[in-house]
Amino acid sequence: MQTIEKQTVEKKASQEEKLKRELALIEAALYVSGRPLDLKELCSVLKTRSKNKVKKLVKILMEEYANRNTALEILELKDERYVLQLKAEFTPKVRKLVSRPLLSTGPLKTLSYIAYRQPVSQKRVVEVRGHHAYGHIKLLKERKLIAGEKRGRSTILKTTEYFADYFGLSHDLATMKRQLKNVFEDYSKKEKR
User: Fold this and answer.
1) How large is the C-alpha radius of gyration of the chain?
2) For position 92, what pLDDT does the model report?
3) Helix (H, G, I), strand (E, B), or coil: what is residue 98?
4) 147 strand-pairing partners
5) Which CATH number goes with the domain that contains 39?
6) Which residues contact 58 (CB under 8 A, 6 or more apart)?
7) Same domain, 82 and 10
8) Domain assignment of residue 116, yes or no
């Protein structure tokens, strides 16, 4: 009788260790990526095909973060994507500590133009931003902030879902443009001071 109980206790302990390891792997993946991850990507980290299993594990981890009451949170985005990020209330207080910006000024200005004018032809972006914009566009595509779609002989540029998620903007284009307009207005007011 004791051996059955001992085996049951050992099995339960082994399952708990496996659960802790799987939660830690999901947390590590979300932390290291620095971007939203979908279920397929999280499944590959855990070496499983079960999206339901991964979904349950992410929900457990989300709950743990909510209960910890820390500066970090795990959010579920649309299309079953998840992101580990700083809570919005802390961002303004620590922004100055970020040592390396995502983009330098030139590519950031090109990205701003594309985001506000999208969908916009690559030709128009180059006319407005100059020939160096070709390099900016290449970089922005590599960082998955914009995507290009061929239409005849021209390429039409627009931002990606990752762009909206990264900058905390709406996925709805009209709403995003209003948000960007407000950001640009706030920035220009600060510049005039």
Assistant:
1) 22
2) 76
3) coil
4) 158
5) 1.10.10.10
6) 26, 42, 74, 76, 82
7) yes
8) yes
